[in-house]
Amino acid sequence: MNVALIGAQWGDEGKGKMVDYLAAEAQIIVRFSGGANAGHTIVRGNEQFALHLIPSGILYPDKTVILGTGMAIDPEAMFAELEMLESRGIDWHGRVLVSDRAHIVLPRYRDIDKTMEAARRKPIGTTGRGIGVTYSMKASRDGVRLADLYDEDRLANLEPGDVEFIRAWVDRLAPLAIDLTDYLYHHRHSYILFEGAQGALLDLDAGTYPYVSSGMSGAAGAAAQGGVGPRSLDRVLGVFKAYSTRVGNGPFPTEFDTDSQSALCQFIRDTGREYGVTTGRPRRCGYLDLVALRYACLANSIDSLILTHLDVYDTLDSFEACVAYRVRGKILEYFPAAIRDLEDAEPVLRSFRGWKRSIADVKEYDQLPLEAKDYISFIEEYTGTAIDLVSIGYERERTIVRKSPWIRY
Ligand code: GDP
């Protein structure tokens, strides 16, 4: 059975925790996009792991994790992460595999990345790790894949420094390479979790272009870049937070940006620990944007949603969510493509009652306060999509399951 999990906002929705939770029942975890620019945080007991390239399932001793075709792989960063895991007692040998169609990030791409960003009149806010350049090279057919590492004809196109870099890593990389489609065909009776990076609104095609990542971060990527066809995905799950955050530049219609909202912004940032895993930068915060969430559901065939960070609202008397945009006097209920429309959009807000108690120890959906259930029902109705899991804390056990994604209904 194949289950895909993607971020349904601008990333940082808590995918790492949910992949870690759902991976308990999977045998194989395939990360299908992004590179070392993504950061997932997983908390296990007293230990916290920040993963960038390696799929979150690695923390289980018996799971196979695969870096998929859509990933941009920086061998230096990948082996540094594997060494970090090893030093913390996680044996990865024999269970970390890499699609031989995945592209390699060459060191010179990082410099190109930084130069391109510096030359932009309006910077995108890239992390400067060369991921965007790797995808550009891929599209212009100048990239290098794992499968090309021994191909002298391909290497002849590269600069001497690139070849030197490749030769330094090839012997460690080659044993991890697999033909992903063939491998998954042979494991077609397994439970496979396809793990996304970033989020639906950062997808190259569906996101807020040009303020997007350069890869496929939506559900289509799980198929195309995860080595299977679109009809092989049995379920698509979308993870979203009770509010919204965004890192880097780009339009964010529901951002808290007035003085009167700054206390709420700081409260959410501190309570939800909204600081970047990779950079430590405070994240931009805002109201839950239901217009954007419904768009993410439609553009990705999301079967069910996973609501995270609901606990962050525990102490509030009331809170709001955006149900439409007012753009230069006109009400919009869909997510427009034009950046100018998104920048001019003022959120039309609906108010919800808070529950004013801790939900940290809730185990069953029925034990949630009525006000929390009202919020959930409203989101389900608005998006036309069921919320099957609710996360009420970063710990694994703080997860309420209404319907398991691993059961065929
Ligand atoms: P990802 O990139 O989508 O995996 O998200 P990040 O790991 O960047 O950010 C999610 C952060 O929220 C991490 O620090 C998680 O430990 C934390 N987190 C995940 N789920 C919850 C939740 O339900 N409640 C709270 N309070 N924190 C959560």
Structural notes for this entry:
This protein has 409 residues and is an alpha/beta fold. The chain folds into two domains: 236 residues, Adenylosuccinate Synthetase, Chain A, domain 1, CATH 3.40.440.10; 162 residues, Adenylosuccinate Synthetase, subunit A, domain 3 (Adenylosuccinate Synthetase, Chain A, domain 3, Alpha-Beta Complex), CATH 3.90.170. 28% of the residues lie in helices and 22% in strands. The strands form five sheets. It has a ten-stranded mixed β-sheet with strand order 9-7-5-2-10-1-11-15-19-20, sandwiched between helices. Strands 14, 16, 17 and 18 form a four-stranded mixed β-sheet that branches. Helix 3 packs across helix 4. It is globular and about 65 Å long. 48% of the residues are buried. The model has no long low-confidence stretch (mean pLDDT 93).
